Amino acid sequence: MIAEVIVDVAAYPIDRPFDYAVPIDWEHVMEPGLRVKVPFGPRKVAGYVTGIKEESELDHNKIKPIAEIIDLEPVLSAELLALSKWMATETIAYEIDALQVMLPAAMRAKYEKIMTVIKPEELDDAFRSFLGNRQQVTLKALQDANLLNEVKKYNKLGIVEIDTAIQQKTKMKKVRMIHVPDAKQLETALEEAHPNAKKQQELLRWLLLHPTESIEASKILDESGVTATVLKSLVDKEIVEQSQVEVYRELESPKMQDSGKPEQLTDEQQVALSAIEQSSNKNIQETFLLHGITGSGKTEVYLQAIDHVLKQGKEAIVLVPEIALTPQMTARFKGRFGELVAVLHSGLSAGEKYDEWRRIHRGEVKVAIGARSAVFAPFSNLGLLILDEEHETTYKQEESPRYHARDVAIWRANYYQCPVILGSATPSLESYARASKGVYSLLTLSKRAKNQALPSVEVVDMREELKAGNRSMFSLALAEGIRERLVRKEQIVLLLNKRGFSSFVLCRDCGTVVECPNCDISLTYHRASESLKCHYCGHEERVPSECPECTSEHIRFFGTGTQKAQEELYKLVPEARVIRMDIDTTNTKGAHERLLYDFGEGKADILLGTQMIAKGLDFPRITLVGVLAADTSLHLADFRAAEKTFQLLTQVSGRAGRDQLPGEVVIQTYDPEHYAIELSKTQNYVPFYEMEMDRRRQLGYPPYYYVTVVQFSHEDVLKAADYAHKGTEFIAERLSQGSVIIGPTAAAISRLNNRYRYQSLIKYKHEPALIPVLQQLLKHYKTSWAKDGLVMSINREPTSIF
DNA sequence: AGCACGCCGACT
DNA sequence: GTCGGCGTGCTC
User: Which reaction(s) does its UniProt entry say it catalyses (predicted)?
Assistant: First the structure.
């Protein structure tokens, strides 16, 4: 028997199955989807069995046997193996990367070189004294002790051996259990106990008082007050037995709870739910676009649709943007489905994620909620997949494999012939266009569930404010609104639209902006450390006291960060309690949730933050939302700038007035006539969609064309440009008539980490040659260009074209 | 990717 | 003479 194995080596010539012989004893357990350890050249690596066959086309003497089987059960089903293959092809990634991304990080192999002593008598004294009585030492430890050269010498002479140990990163958590086989034996033991063994007697009495068949050892020690030695002596005397039992790590239960009862649906919600249920009953793949304004109760539709498929004995996956994965959201699902829900969020440790994965794999839960990667939840009978806030760009992974969770969800739904729900108040143009063409089925929720009015939106022209002598960050209208809310003890959300715009240091005499020495990017000012940082490469330097160009002292930071906004806010309303949420205040584990929780509990009046606050907040006392600079995201060199701005403004406006109290929104801008801002006033998606589609058609951008970006980077600017031209020409010569190639041009960030970057944009409506051509290009690159220091990357349907 | 093999410069 | 630098080539 031959197993086809994809080995854990991400390199071009290795990206295919390798044949290995299956030892006869393992033939009956060998299955695709198992992880194995195999010899590969001079070393040993981990790999995945992707296929089984009787014969190999290769010479018998070339085939090596599998060294070890890692799993008892396959970790990847036939479905997921097929998915990985599809994903690798579509996104032009290594198959090994596509396989690895589907499993929790804890299951990725860890390699460690270990030295074993064979002939201890031939070691020199210094080496021997370092080893002590150890037979095996990691090479890492030997390197730290500066003994690497000796090890190499001994290895050549056969005095020591070096091999690679392959381990899983995180293990299953185990606890020690104590079993009482027979209570009578305890009594006998107590009678026969040595009179000096006071503690043992005490423990026996405790055990008799707490009759049980098995109990955690730690619990006995805690509650009986005896020490571990005492327990051990009972184990040694075989009065009790002990064993290691695998357990799941305990997860913190959410603080907020949901009633757990289905809510009464509005007519619109009912129509949507019925359509989904019917589709589900028919066992066909259908993708629904659930377009519901903020507060229209999309989540309730999800919950009841999930309930429907659970009753059919099927499973469901719910994807949400990481930032929306708040306790508030997850508590609602846990309240409804209780123990059947696994929540996969970034706050979990690697071990906890692994546990949740196993609970899904074993079929102990039926619903998985999580960010992007939860789309790979190892269910085997899926009945529904949901992407909430489907327009979010976080659904696209921006490193290899560059998959989009929406595409993966639809692929899986096709496999199981079940529905997909894409939900959003502001769908991506791609999805809405597909819904308009009938590829997706459109479901609309146009009214708020609790019949609240939409918030009133006021757009303030900041140029007028400036003319009127108001030089602060807050317009008169917003300042007034803030003061009113403080008096009425209502809450305020202030959004600082920082995308593509942060505080930088500028010389007021010569106009020089301090830039990163490695990247063509201005450095960002950080107040806490009084330093300038590059957000791309991590370079950090002190704030200069004079201009590096003209030595003027008139150099100071410019732009608007959240810290500066907080200071200005303090000047405006010193009595207000403010919670600031940005990268600086949310970088510790759980900080994001804690800040939101505090705000929900009313511990602050104002929540000030970046885009991360635009989603998922559902607090009844928020009645005012202020957007401090709405147009900063409009000036990005990106065809999606208007779409992103409209989405952000609509999402954040939806935070106001979600309960009984009416909401108000103030949008500050220097560009009030822009259609993305103008139309967000009425929060009316369809007119915006039509306007933006018009523009996309004129400019030939998605969704009218598909886009693929090929990027070339090199330390030498001339070589970067040269290869970019060669590569672009290569593609252009091979594409069909209808496709357009733009470039090469310097990337928006033309130098990053000391590498010069060029890119070309391929636009196409239908291009069957695309994948083959890109694969050919990749072959050229890997076989010759890469050796010359070129780095090339291919990104299909990028979320932005930087 | 990583590891071995192999062929040329500066050291005990 | 040998240690060790990194070019080249292969991995079932």
Answer: ATP + H2O = ADP + phosphate + H(+); Couples ATP hydrolysis with the unwinding of duplex DNA by translocating in the 3'-5' direction
Break chain A into its structural domains and give their ranges.
2-109, 110-168, 181-239, 268-445, 456-500+560-696, 504-558, 706-796
Rounded CA–C1' distance between A19 and C12, in angstroms: 4
How deeply is A666 buried, as exposed, middle or buried, from its count of CB atoms within 10 A (0-12, 13-18, 19+)? buried
The values of phi and psi at residue A260, to 5°, are 90, -5
- CA-to-C1' span, A713 to C7 (A): 23
Q: Does domain A268-445 have CATH number 3.40.50.300?
A: yes
Identify the residue whose tokens are 């100071």.
A556
Tell me, yes or no, if the two domains A268-445 and A456-500+560-696 fold the same way: yes
* CB of A11 lies under 7 Å from some atom of strand B: yes
Residues with CB under 7 A from strand C: A 9, 11, 13-14, 18-21, 38-41, 56, 58, 62-64, 149, 152, 787
- Local structure of A712: helix, strand or coil: strand
Angstrom CA distances, A694 to A432, A702, A707, stand at 14, 11, 18
b/e burial code for range A617-653 (CB count within 10 A of at least 16 → b): bbbebbbbbbbbbbbbbbebebbbbbbbbbbbbbbbb
Tens-place pLDDT, residues A27-38: 999 999 999 999
A151 closest CA partner among A188, A177, A179, A114: A114
Query: How confident is the model at residue A636, as a pLDDT?
Result: 65
> What span, in angstroms and rounded, lies between the C-alpha atoms of A684 and A686?
6
Q: Is the pLDDT of residue A502 over 60?
A: no
Residues 6+ apart with CB under 8 A from A233: A197, A200
Pick the CATH number of A706-796 from 2.40.50.140, 3.40.50.1970, 3.40.50.300, 3.30.70.600: 3.30.70.600
Is the model's pLDDT at A361 over the cut of 90? yes
Question: A47-92, pLDDT tens digit by residue?
Answer: 999 999 999 999 888 999 999 999 989 999 999 999 999 999 999 9
CATH number attached to the domain at A456-500+560-696: 3.40.50.300
> Which nucleotide is at minimal CA–C1' distance from A155?
B4
Using one digit for the tens of pLDDT, what is the confidence trace for A4-16? 999 999 988 899 9
Q: How far apart are CA A268 and CA A369, in angstroms?
A: 25
Neighbours of A558 (CB within 10 A): 16
Q: Is the pTM of this model over 0.70?
A: yes
Length of chain A: 802
Chain A 153-182 residues whose Cβ is under 7 Å from strand B: 164
Nucleotides of chain C touched by protein CB (<7 A)? 3-4, 8, 10-12
Asked if residue A579 lies in contact with residue A608, where contact means CB atoms within 8 angstroms, the answer is yes
The answer to whether A592 touches A581, Cβ cutoff 8 Å, is: yes
Q: DSSP class of residue A785?
A: I
Fold classified for A2-109 = GIY-YIG endonuclease (3.40.1440)
